[in-house]
User: What shape does this take?
Amino acid sequence: ASLLPSLAYVRSIVIPSGMGRIKTFLLVAAIAIIPTIAVWAPFYLRTEKLWSIPLPVNGMQTVVANYDGPLYIVVAKTLYNKEAIVKNFSFDLPYEYYAAHFPLYPLTIRVISMVSGYVWGTLIATLLAAIFAHYYFYRFALDMTKKEHLAVWLTMIFAVMPARWLIVRSVGSPEPLFVGAIIACLFHARKKQYLLAGLFGAIAAMTKSPGILLLPALLISILLPRFKEIVTTHNMGKFIKSLHISSIAVFLIPMGLLAVFALYQVQFGTFFAYFNSGDNIHLFFPPFQIFNFSQPWVGTHWLEEIIFIYLIIALGLSRLIAQKEWLLAWFVGIFFGVILFVSHRDVLRYALPTIPFVILAFRDQLVKREFVFVMLLLIIPIYLFSIVFIVNNVMPIGDWTPLL
Assistant: This one.
């Protein structure tokens, strides 16, 4: 009922007893990088067909052109300067639209571009962020399983599931940095290391706006267990003393978001530019509007798999509650509650921050022998879906010169 013996054997080779942090990091980095290299390979090699699927022969241009990678290059090159955007980039988008693309990921592109240029810098920035996300996931898995080989196996699962995660970390995308910062934030908050939790939470909030949802999850997990001090003793002083003084650092999270809005005040002339960026906030009332095929970002009635996405996340949440992982349960619960109001065909991309914790919630099942065989079966469709998605999710770019 445990992992295949061969996995334990591989572990004994690649993770010897007492393995240092550097070797651990290199192993996790390899787990993060290898699937992405496999996704890039047919594009880099200009393969005309893969598994009888026709592919474009534009090389890595196809990968870089995936939504919204080129738009993040625009932000990286211009830092929201209106004149530079209007003069140099011909995308048929209003200037205000770029406020929907938060600055931290483009800043990483800008730094890396000093060595690699902006096009490769976009992919390298994503790849480095993916390594960061997988390393913190490994640490989380190790903390919860107490066994290195199980943590490695769970990290290998996270590296390819869901396929949408493999896709966003193979193209220009802020999701790896965003998800990695969330994992790191909750990892340190679970250990009551609130300064680090606040710093990583601020990174998440400066990468994508839903990062602010970390704040209520952390506040509830900190305050709720101690409310009994007020209920039973009515002693506010004792309640305050029961709190970790360092927990105030969680307010770095909204400060990160405010820093983004302050930048927007300077560049766009309005503190609330994000909310004026156009059709980018896909929250609608009542919930489940994603099943309204007439919604502009839905446009189809082929939506049954959305129910399975809800099901898997809800089951993961219920397991976290049963395991009394209250911090993770609060975050997944709050994030999932918001997701129910998202009306967008690509809802799984919005739900990606919950996936690491759903995997950890099911850790006892995922390390069983049976699931190893399931993974061997699924790896092919995961790979093929990733390739096909990238092929069909390309922005039209007539002139690459301004992006170089």
